[in-house]
Amino acid sequence: MKIYCESLMRKLEFPDKIERIVSLVSGFTETIFEMGHGERIVGVSKYCSRYVNHPSAEVVGDYLKVDLSKLKSLRPDLVLLTTGVQTQLALDLLRKNLPVYVLPLPRSINGVWENVMLIGGLLNDVKSARELVLKWQEVFFNGRETLSERPSAYVELWFGKHMRTVGGLSFVNDLVEYAGVKNIFSDVNESFFVPPLKEVHRRRPKFIIFFYEPEFPIDPYRIVESRGWDWKAKLIESTVECGKNLIHDGPSMMRTIQWLREQIWG
């Protein structure tokens, strides 16, 4: 079958029934398992095991690089990647005649759900994809806070040693706002950017949400103290743990928003 890939601006050809999938994006891997097609996955990134348990799948690389010989040996029908920092890897693999499909990096929760539907199309199972999206939406919408004055929150993400915050063009913004708080930078037309710490101090948010990776641990309480942020804000710590990861766009986001609501509302 031929499928147009908007991210690569070209038509790509795949088998009519895709049986052997390599997924280099943990959110896509988790989605495929949740849809009931985990047996099709033959290769994953080293991060996918955080969200699914599939010991028979070969680890072929991480988010930015792959073992090409190992990848080719798996004879994949489909290699899934996303845009952003994976774009160059996708183009390199495409030039090596690998069956690459690139899904867009979601800029909202609707983009996450759109990707689920696209995966359903690739796997000839739109029905399961739609059921998953409806389930996901029910979790998001049914618990949504309707208070006109939601408490303010500042989100600080540590990507390794690089500190960023969240603007309005990220699904992370939607995740925290559906949990019932107001991101103080939701009006910024960016996904992630270096936070203006003086502005955070001026706005004095009621919640400060930190995310960090295990390879580069931080101490949120020491950070807050070192900056002189002396108002009574509640600190929430998010990590890569399944169900507590703010930046993961797989189905366990349903657990993450429930966990976040518990942290906010008790």
From TrEMBL:
The keyword Kinase does not apply. It comes from Pseudothermotoga hypogea. The keyword Phosphoprotein does not apply. Residues 20-266 form the Fe/B12 periplasmic-binding domain. It holds the Pfam family Peripla_BP_2. InterPro entries: ABC_Transporter_SBP, ABC_transptr_periplasmic_BD, Vit_B12_bind_prot. Transmembrane segments: none annotated. This is ABC transporter substrate-binding protein. Keywords: Signal.
